Amino acid sequence: MTVRTVALVAHDHKKPELLAWVKQHRALLEPFKLVATGTTGKLISDETGLEVLRFKSGPLGGDQQIGALIAENQLDALFFFWDPLNPAPHDPDVKALLRLCSVWNVPVACTPATADLVVTSPLFSDTEHRRAMPDYGK
User: Which domain, by its residues, includes 35?
Assistant: First the structure.
């Protein structure tokens, strides 16, 4: 069985919302390798006991580290609760991360409603399911 990787990211005003969502879906997330940006990862790990590989804080390069996972086909889903009402100084990094998800066909959820649909899909926990990978070599 292949262990798949899921990234968890949240802007400051959305961290409580992401934490509540992770607690609600802890059992579904537990089998996955979890990665997160710095503060978000620490919060999730401390509050849930889940093992989370922490990258740098988003503004300090954590968004790019997750983007590198996407570009290397090492990320299976991104849950990014971003705050559309409070622009962040690293907004270009956020847009680049979301763009990479579209480029490489990586499922991304930016709201609890969408995240609920993703984790409750039978495809989410199906270790045999592989998303279609675009071929840009042509």
Answer: 5-119
Residue 128 lies in a domain: no
Catalytic residue check, 63: yes
| End-to-end Cα separation, the chain, in angstroms | 31
The catalytically annotated residue of 12, 46, 63, 116 is 63
pLDDT digits (tens, 9 = 90+) for 80-128: 998 888 877 777 888 899 999 999 999 999 999 999 999 999 999 887 7
| Overall number of domains in the chain | 1
Q: Does a structural domain hold residue 133? A: no
- CATH number at 105 reads 3.40.50.1380
11 is annotated as contributing to ligand binding: yes
pTM of the predicted model over 0.90: yes
**SS3 category, 4:** coil
Q: Confirm or deny that 2 is annotated as ligand binding.
A: no
Is 39 assigned to a binding site?
Answer: yes
